[in-house]
Amino acid sequence: MVKDPRLYNALNIPPTASQSDIKKAYRVQALRYHPDKNNESEESKKKFQDISEAYSILRDENQRKMYDKYGTVNPTEIQQQNQRTNVPFTDPFGMSAADLFSQFFDTQNHNSGQSNSSPPFGFPFNSSRNGNGNNNRAADGVFGDFFNTKSRPLQKGPDINHNLKCTIKDLYRGKRSKLRLERSKLCSICKGDGGVKRSMCNQCHGDGNITETTRLGPMLQTFTHTCNICNGNGWVIISQETCQGCNGVGFYNEMKIFDVEIYPGMKDGTQIVFNNEGDEIVNKRRVIPGNVIIHINEIEDNKFKRVNDGQDLYYWNYEIDLFTSLCGGVIYIKGHPNNKLIKVDILPGEIIESGSVKGVESLGMPKNKGNEYGILYIQFQVKYPEKLNMESIKAIEKILLKDENVKQMQKNDENIGLDDDCIEVEEYVLSSFVPPVARTNEKKRARN
């Protein structure tokens, strides 16, 4: 005896009908009441949906057994019936409740051994979000947790990226920084549900999707969309059961403090990764937390520049006076990343030309976390005096003319005039260069 013969009446068959009788009756009734053959009347649409619903349940032996006993396959209604009668929910055919619901919701595995598993006219009552009949929302909802059935795998959430600005001194000496980032955290009270108890969604009956039929030209098309009541979850939280810890949203935003360690010698663009420390909830859905990735962003220094893959330092346009460039001496470099005043000796006899580059060992950037250091390269710019008095000129001339190196250079210059193509020589005197803009400004001032 069946509790409610409604589905059998929809197919016009007795409760004792075989699977072959059910299939034949469905074809007859579906052809009879198909909306295409009934001028798209609302009555035929309703009748056709009832027929399709009846066939989708009665063709499945497990669902049919459940319907015969309870008059429904809605798990919430079945539980309510059992609670009213104080009868534990067990299957009369020897199947446990967990196994029964597992088979009920695992449509892909159950239907794989059946032929003609979907009804004609493209009415996919068992369609799911991914279109393969698996991962039914109800199994992931109340009964997925209650009966410990397999839930759908969580997706990996997005990474949280943050740029950490560092000076060249920070990257030379290393430092520790406290970084505070906001992230979403799963509510520990309701485990992200938003309530202490889930209830099956009555709109989609736990599927998470709703199937509708529409006419497209001469054809009737069915399509599935996400349930707007449960947002595809298959379950809802009633207001009386709302979690007080998160006010029903299932998560909260927390400020997480990360201890970021900058090692000596780190380079611009280096990534420091905190695995699985990202958001636990994305778009109101639970995810596997992504990573928090700290990107080192080196601030450009006004004196020093990193070269040779960041292991050496380059100091450009260091001004040196004429005397030191010719005679040697001591120079001091300020602002080095090691926070020390650097003293460099230029040995006598080492002529420093303007634009020349010299290197100092072990004053570059740290390598191997500070166990080794690169090279400091210095580009020199010789600063000449604007004028010299005649006594100094004569004294310098007298001294230089005695130097063999200077004599050799002068001899090379004299040989230029002996070239065969040199027919005539014109003599000129140098004058100071005044840019055109400066000359224009001088003329304006003169007129005023």
TrEMBL record:
Entry keyword annotation includes Ribonucleoprotein: no
The keyword Chaperone belongs to this UniProt entry's keyword annotation: yes
GO cellular component terms listed in the entry, alphabetical order: nuclear inclusion body; nuclear periphery
Gene Ontology MF term list: ATPase activator activity; Hsp70 protein binding; unfolded protein binding; zinc ion binding
InterPro entries assigned to the protein according to its UniProt record, in alphabetical order: DnaJ_C, DnaJ_domain, DnaJ_domain_CS, DNJA1/2-like, HSP40/DnaJ_pept-bd, HSP_DnaJ_Cys-rich_dom, HSP_DnaJ_Cys-rich_dom_sf, J_dom_sf
Zinc fingers (CR-type) by residue: 174-255
PROSITE patterns per the UniProt record, alphabetical: DNAJ_1, DNAJ_2, ZF_CR
Region called Disordered, residue ranges: 107-137
Pfam families, sorted: DnaJ (PF00226), DnaJ_C (PF01556), DnaJ_CXXCXGXG (PF00684)
Domain J: 6-71
Lineage: superkingdom: Eukaryota
GO biological process, any: establishment of protein localization to mitochondrion
Alphabetical keyword list: Chaperone, Metal-binding, Repeat, Zinc, Zinc-finger
SMART domains referenced in this protein's UniProt entry, alphabetically: DnaJ
Residue spans of biased composition, Low complexity class: 111-137
CR-type domain residues: 174-255
Protein name listed in UniProt: J domain-containing protein
Originating organism: Henningerozyma blattae (strain ATCC 34711 / CBS 6284 / DSM 70876 / NBRC 10599 / NRRL Y-10934 / UCD 77-7)
